[in-house]
Design brief:
CATH topology of the largest domain: 2,3-Dihydroxybiphenyl 1,2-Dioxygenase, domain 1
Number of domains: 2
Distance between the termini: 34 Å
Number of strands: 8
Number of helices: 3
CATH superfamily of the largest domain: 2,3-Dihydroxybiphenyl 1,2-Dioxygenase, domain 1
Structural class: alpha/beta
CATH class of the largest domain: Alpha Beta
Strand content: 35-45%
Radius of gyration: 16 Å
């Protein structure tokens, strides 16, 4: 049935969003790009996160777009290979103009993570998970 999953995020400015996400380490599929959208590739499986202009996004969803300054519809999480990578992502986010709202820290004794908002206020979470420390 399902062959692929992708996420769609409304953004105010495609170029600024691409610059931000490239600065923190993501890449893009130029073959899936249009003036009103860009396809960011996430992880080893290259899950597409489509950055779509707000006007196009609103037309597609036929609904209002969440005001990210007041609420969140979801948090997007991705893994890191080490605690150091979590720290690096947090530093890159701040340098690129995003906001780190949860500084890197240990979580539940087996995770180390940080959370941030991108330029459009979408919430992201980067986690290093040490599976050897998970209670059995």
């Amino acid at each position: 049935m399902t062959k692929e999953l992708w996420l769609n995020l409304p953004v105010k400015d495609i170029k600024k969003s691409k610059t931000f996400f490239k600065a923190i380490g993501f890449s893009f599929d130029e073959n899936r790009e249009r003036e009103d959208m860009a396809a960011m590739k996430v992880g080893e499986k290259k899950v597409p996160v489509m950055l779509i202009t707000e006007a196009t996004f609103k037309n597609v969803i036929q609904h209002t777009i969440t005001d990210t300054s007041k609420s969140s519809e979801m948090m997007i999480s991705f893994d890191a290979e080490s605690r150091e990578e979590v720290d690096e992502v947090a530093q890159k986010v701040e340098k690129a103009g995003g906001t780190v709202f949860a500084k890197p820290s240990e979580i539940q004794g087996w995770m180390y993570g940080s959370a941030f908002t991108d330029l459009d206020g979408h919430r992201w979470n980067v986690l290093y998970m040490d599976m050897n420390k998970v209670e059995k």
